[in-house]
Specification:
alpha/beta, Aspartate Aminotransferase, domain 2, binds pyridoxal-5'-phosphate
Length: 417
Amino acid sequence: MSMRTKSNPGLEPDNWLARRVSSSIEQFRQLEHAGLGALVAESRDGKTIQLEDGRRIVEFASCCYLGFESDPRLVEAAKLSLDRWATQLACARTRIVVQDVVRLEQLLSQILGGMAVTVFQSASLAHVGILPLFAAGVLPSFSFRSPQFILDRKAHASIQVLRAVLESFGRVVNINIDDLNAVEESLQRARRDGHTPIVICDGIGSMGHIAPIEAMLPMLDRVDGYLYCDDAHGFSVLGEHGQGHAMSHLKKSPHRGIVIVSLNKSFGTNGGAAVVPTTNDLQVIQRYATSYAFSGSPALPLVGASIESAMLHLSSELCDRQALFNRNLALLDRELDECPLPVLNQFSTSPVRGVLLGSEKQCIDFCAAILHRGYLVTAALYPTVERDAATARIAISANHTHGQIVGLCNIIRDLAG
Ligand SMILES: Cc1ncc(COP(=O)(O)O)c(C=O)c1O
């Protein structure tokens, strides 16, 4: 199916986004036709969702891996915050910052190894605010000449959409971050050509891929390059106090880069955060990042819940939650050990699992058959994944019961066999 502009009927817009839209329209149509698009949830009970049409399903689609979203202490904290602040304070944070937001940033800094932290409404909006400032060379911790961006092909869509912004500051080179020889070569070439190389990737990607950050840091040291890492899926579920995959390594060389985390996933609340080396960097961000200075703060009731979640992250309870999650993940891995289809990230530390189907149609049919039997997994299709790498994505939670996990795996083995 092709795209046509209203003002120029008959003319097809020819740009990267129009091509992307037009090449995935058919998949979306099939997804909706199979009943897998935009299901309307009426209520929830743990991991069971009551749909508007009367069906009850067990969802393996939400990425709140540790199950904090339904912790009564977070819910109560959100209610208290609502009583205290009402729904919002619609004022730029360059003028008034609510004390709870400052408190949250202090707690996140403790979680994130003492780095300087500021919160945004989401990780996506943190990218919008931070990437241009980083690329422009105005963050004081990072001194560079003209930048060259070494962008992992798998980096999240919220980064990829800012490619044109990056291109206005320097050349963007696409790379597969797993090919460490290619990474080294790109870094050395950029340096030889007089650029400062900046590697951009996800720490744990949305399909669970684990970036080789530990191996890349010495390479970056040798060329005086930097890392910009989105650790939306690693935060909370991995590392000491839940500091995530990226910070677990970057904290040893805190001046080598920037990490963005999301509070919308395992952390169980709402928002995103930028993690930078010093408060001098924060000062620039808080004055000039558009999605900070000219946009609202994270929703205040959820800031209250975030403070509660942060305190749990700094207590011994976090380890218990991580252990519970890992027990469920191990159960899924064991149950799918004999699965005839390839299982993504099986037995790895990544929190994400998936069953690789290949074609879009096979994946949609597979996920629709699972839904028919009362379970929801996500059909991850192009362009979220490469073409012909369509995957039934499974998000496990610490809140799933043994019976729910075994139930899903029985269906998967049945359909795959
Ligand atoms: C790797 C990655 N980064 C960022 C995001 C977006 O996070 P947020 O909801 O905080 O914008 C996602 C969401 O799925 C993601 O998978």
